[in-house]
Amino acid sequence: DYKGSQEASKGIIGMLEVIQSDFARLESSTSAGEATSQRDYDRQMTDSAVTKAQLGKDIEHKGAMKQQGQQALVDLNNDLSSAEKELNAANAYFEKLKPSCVDAGMSFQERAQRRQEEIESLQEALRILNGEDLA
User: Fold this and answer.
1) CA 33, CA 37: separation in Å to the nearest integer?
2) CA-to-CA distance for 102 and 100, rounded, in angstroms?
3) Which mean pLDDT values do the consecutive 10-residue runs of the chain (135 residues) have?
4) Which of helix, strand or coil describes residue 27?
5) pTM to 2 decimal places
6) How many other β-carbons are positioned within 10 Å of the β-carbon of residue 1?
């Protein structure tokens, strides 16, 4: 009766069984890890797509606001330029009228006296026109 090395064969089969169970456990944990990673990846991609869409809308909105602000600035600068031109014209006209309105060579008393004399002469002219006696 030849029995061979049955102890050695049990050792090899036992070792193969251990390897097979280790492989099955590794495959199971790897598959579970990959599934978890895939769910995380999908969630991250969905979140990223939503964020990207929101940021795109923000960019559009802010671009429109910037353009409106720039147009408002141009309009205000044009209004300022027009107002400055009007002010300069009014100041030039004021400077032109100033000498005829304010005679710097006369004192207040002299101007008041001239005004009184002018009023008296106008009153006299009115009496003449009304036919009153000037006696």
Assistant:
1) 6
2) 6
3) 56 87 94 96 97 97 97 97 96 86 73 92 91 67
4) helix
5) 0.45
6) 2
